[in-house]
Amino acid sequence: MEMNGGNGTRVAFVGSECYPFVKTGGLGDVMYALPRALVREGSEVRVILPLYACISQKYKDQMTWKGSFMMDLTRDGGRFFVGIMELTMNGVIYDFIENREFFDWGNPYTGLWEDIPKYCFFSKAALAALNYLDWVPDIVHCHDWQAALTPVYLRTQFAPTPVGSARSVLTIHNLRFQGICGIEHLKHWSGLPAELFNYDVFLNGDHEANMFKGGLTYADRVTTVSETYAGEIQTDFYGEGLNSHLSYHRAKLSGIVNGIDVEQWNSSADSMLPAPYGREDVLARKAENKLALQRRLGLQEDPGRFMVGLISRLTDQKGLDLVNAVFDRIVEDGTQAVVLGTGDPRYEGAFRRCEEAYRGQVSACIMYDESLSHLIYAGADALLVPSLFEPCGLTQLIAMRYGTVPIVRETGGLKDTVAPFRPESGDGNGFTFDHYRADLLLDAVCRARDVYYNRRDQWNGIILRDMEKDVSWTHSASQYLALYQELKAL
Length: 490
Ligand code: ADP
Ligand code: GLC
Hints:
Layout (H helix, E strand, L loop, with lengths): L9 E5 L11 H15 L3 E7 L6 H4 L3 E9 L6 E11 L2 E7 L1 H4 L8 H22 L5 E5 L5 H7 L11 E6 L7 E3 H8 L12 E2 L3 E3 H8 L2 E4 L2 H6 L10 H6 L4 E3 L26 H16 L9 E5 L8 H12 L4 E5 L4 H13 L4 E4 L4 H10 L2 E4 L9 H7 L3 E5 L2 H6 L13 E3 L4 H17 L1 H13 L5 H15 L2
Parallel strand pairs: 1-2, 1-6, 2-5, 6-7, 7-11, 11-12, 13-14, 13-16, 14-15, 16-17, 17-18
Antiparallel strand pairs: 3-4, 4-5, 8-10, 9-10
Bound molecules: adenosine-5'-diphosphate and alpha-D-glucopyranose.
């Protein structure tokens, strides 16, 4: 008997990355934090992931072998090995799909030509594993294009099997990546029936097949990670070619904003900080972290100096061309800037050149470094997130939790989570700008800097309000649970 909305709901998460095993961006954070939040609400959650070679031995040593079988995959009847390794952490069960041919390459994403077969295999193996484990979920919750074939397999080849009774949810974390390839390539690797290769399901024009598109057609519900992005993707500008398809399916599309794991991101108990702090002592202690950051990066040691941080994948999505265009103006009054990120060589090079031009004032850390990210979230005064598009964005949420003021463009989840500061009333969570223009970004940075130097009471008010803001998963997890309940009742 169910006690309340969440109790007893069985959910299988299917996705390509999950912190702390493998993470390249926010998807990894969500795959970690949302299952934990659902378990706290009384759900049973299994997370199904590929067993990539890059997963640390420390975790591999904790896994137990659950068994293996051979699975049909390709159109010509090719059969592939599926092994299942399992570990449990904080009440969440993680099942890793083992297959050396597909997952021994190291990093999760190696190039679309190999990634298409890899994720066809994974999307199907996830369902086969659930049947093998004899664990039938109420909901199969799939994430991004890498798991988009799962809802399709669920309603076709797996419909007559035990897992076929489950409902599916497909969450769009980022519509820019869709798993697009030649029609024959997908036909071959998915082994799905030829009749699905039509314009309502997989076809993208006459020559391409699109995995995400097919998943969106077949999923019982589609969600994305903020309400604003749910609206934006139905427009030409943000729709990445799928806007009409999404508008057509809008009755099953909704937006649920992400949260962050407030234990993972907790400035008062963060072992990576030299001076952990809470809301009660942030105004006194934040500066100690800034000083430690300045020391670590070889910047002039001056805790009174305004410092902006940027922690991001360095890609076109993140608005870095705007930052580069006005960088000299941002730092001209001595403002310090710290960039942490990797990605497009164009941006990596541009930030390295900024560091050279402003030694001691600017630091470009072209790397992925979890612990340095914590120190920047704590030590910087403001965090820049001027994205071209941003489905949700987690860095502004982490920043607010650490009392670091976000400077964001009003798009997607940035718009839904950062209320603009209003000088008349002094309320709001950060500094925002609307159109994608470098002069407007610069203006927002200048407004922030002005409040920092000249109206410290108001600045401190923003810090305290941001640290108080609920950025946890609690509210959003209950929205997912309500969605699961609706689907169970169908
Ligand atoms: P996206 O998923 O588009 O990359 P999000 O804001 O949702 O953007 O999530 C980014 C996540 O990745 C955050 O947890 C952020 O701290 C982390 N991150 C991004 N770049 C780095 C980096 N170079 N080093 C450490 N963490 C990073
Ligand atoms: C994507 C988006 C980001 C979002 C994350 C987690 O990578 O780019 O905006 O926060 O997924 O949903």
